[in-house]
């Protein structure tokens, strides 16, 4: 069955750029939205943004100025870049598949998550 | 775009039923039938329990039920079991290709 796996540095310095990649295995990257969702320690979930397999993107308005999501279909990967990070960006970062198609919606498959700490 | 409002905690005894509310606005929950619910056990990734407001993915127990009225969605768990103890999050499509989560509810099975 389809699985997602996040990868990237676990420690990022303040003011630098956080970069993560999600690899899709066991299925196709086509015809779905692919999202990044984060969860600060002890806090709730926050939707960061998504990308359709064709490359169109949407972002959380509160993060839009700092976020870039890209897709590499041939590698079955999509990536997150978050610039100018601060301690407030310390969180578990999840990638997830969203089945949204105007008739249905839900994040049905999640990666295990990767913890990113922002600290000097 | 503000987070959906959920109670911080709910509790119930085994066999009882509980309901978790998720209050949004006419711009998100009230406008779309795209509310989903997630169960998260400590140290684990969230798991989809309800989608499209009231549908259950394959493999999810029929003890879990979702509904919506106006700007408020609800998750009801019937016949509480110890394994249901977890954090629960609602999520809604919020228009303009954006999504918003609730703050989460900690369910304690007494």
Describe, in plain words, how this protein is organized in 3D.
The complex is a heterodimer of chains A (120) and B (110). By secondary structure, chain A is mostly beta strands. Helices cover 0% and strands 51% of the residues of chain A. Chain A contains no helices and eleven strands. Chain A has strands at residues 3-7, 11-12, 18-25, 33-39, 46-52, 57-59, 67-72, 77-82, 91-98, 107-110, 114-118. In chain A, the strands form two sheets. In chain A, strands 2, 4, 5, 6, 9, 10 and 11 form a seven-stranded mixed beta sheet that branches. Chain B is 0% helix and 44% strand. Chain B is globular and about 40 Å long. In chain B, the strands form two sheets. In chain B, strands 1, 3, 4, 7, 8 and 9 form a six-stranded mixed beta sheet that branches. In chain B, strands 2-6-5 form a three-stranded antiparallel beta sheet, with no helix packed on it. The relative contact order of chain B is 0.34. Chain B has strands at 9-12, 18-23, 35-40, 47-50, 64-69, 72-77, 86-93, 99-101, 105-109. By secondary structure, chain B is mainly beta. Chain B contains no helices and nine strands. In chain B, a hairpin with a 6-residue loop joins β3 and β4. The termini of chain B are far apart. The model of chain B has no long low-confidence stretch (mean pLDDT 97). At the A-B interface, β5 and β10 of A face β7 and β8 of B.
């Amino acid at each position: 069955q389809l699985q997602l796996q996040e990868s990237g540095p676990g420690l990022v310095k303040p003011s630098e750029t956080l970069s993560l990649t999600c690899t899709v295995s066991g299925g196709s990257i086509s015809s779905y939205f692919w999202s990044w969702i984060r969860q600060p320690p002890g806090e709730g979930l926050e939707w960061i943004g998504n990308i359709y397999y064709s490359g169109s993107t949407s972002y959380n308005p509160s993060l839009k100025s700092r976020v870039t999501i890209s897709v590499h279909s041939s590698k079955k990967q999509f990536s997150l870049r978050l610039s100018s990070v601060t301690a407030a960006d310390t969180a578990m970062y999840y990638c997830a598949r969203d089945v949204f198609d105007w008739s249905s919606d839900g994040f049905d498959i999640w990666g295990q998550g990767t913890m990113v700490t922002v600290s000097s | 775009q503000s987070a959906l409002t959920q109670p911080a905690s709910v509790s119930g005894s085994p066999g009882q039923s509980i309901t978790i509310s998720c209050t949004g606005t006419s711009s998100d929950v009230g406008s779309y039938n795209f509310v989903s619910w997630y169960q998260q056990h400590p140290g684990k990734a969230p798991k989809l329990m309800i989608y499209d407001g009231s549908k259950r993915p394959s493999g999810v127990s029929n003890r879990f039920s979702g509904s919506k009225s106006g700007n408020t969605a609800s998750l009801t768990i019937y016949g509480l079991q110890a394994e249901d103890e977890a954090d629960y999050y609602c999520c809604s499509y919020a228009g303009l290709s954006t999504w918003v989560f609730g703050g989460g509810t900690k369910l304690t099975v007494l």
